[in-house]
Amino acid sequence: MFYRVFMSALVAGVLGGLAISAVQGVTTVPLIHEAETYESAQTAPAPGAVGEAHAGATAAGLSHGAQAAHTHDHGGTWAPADGLERTAFTALTNVIAGFGFALLITGCFAIGRREPDAREGVLWGLAGFAVFTLAPGLGLAPELPGTAAADLTARQAWWIAAAASTAFGLWLLVFRGGGLPKALGVFVIALPHVIGAPRAHGPTHAVPPELAAQFAASSMVTQAVFWALLGLIAGAAYLRLGRTEKPTRAGYPAAV
Fold this sequence. Notes:
Blueprint: H1 2-24, H2 29-43, H3 59-72, H4 84-112, H5 118-139, H6 152-175, H7 179-195, H8 209-244
Helix pairs in contact: 1-4, 1-8, 2-3, 4-5, 4-8, 5-6, 5-8, 6-7
């Protein structure tokens, strides 16, 4: 059973991660690059602050230097260079994240002791999207570089609370009968949003609001596709691996 859960998640993570990386290349990545130009312009040194050795630098050279500092320095921390290296690290991150999320999906398959089909896999994937992306995103929308944000600890705490409450609320709505559990499920899902997510307090960011709104919407749609792919592939792989397991004398699949 462990082999079935693990391998199904691995296949879904690799295929789903690579597929969504290609989708991001034409949806969210160009928006991130555009936002970085605003961030670089905001953090570029003033002409008077340039030393005598750089007195003859052109405006284009200053802009390029600021962008290079953003790409490679990030306040003293390493970051992949633009181009192939950055694309490769983005794809690797998506594959690792996809594998972890797919493990949750295939783990639910195993706990539920059901043989999923493609449709059920997609439903589990969309449930994961609701828990880990949609519910937290309603309070903390995906942010572009250079966007003002609230305290990191406060945002992390609220994100965890929103995801956990949504998961518990969906479990009450789907797997528990009766009006009271379902009403409790709705209440639990809504509670973090009634309390409210932490808000940023500080100067306005340099990124235009239209660009930030487009990025938030594109990120949501992209993540919905990502989770649906994970569920679809995980369900298909889980079902196929179940058919190849060797039966025991009692007629049940042998545990691996």
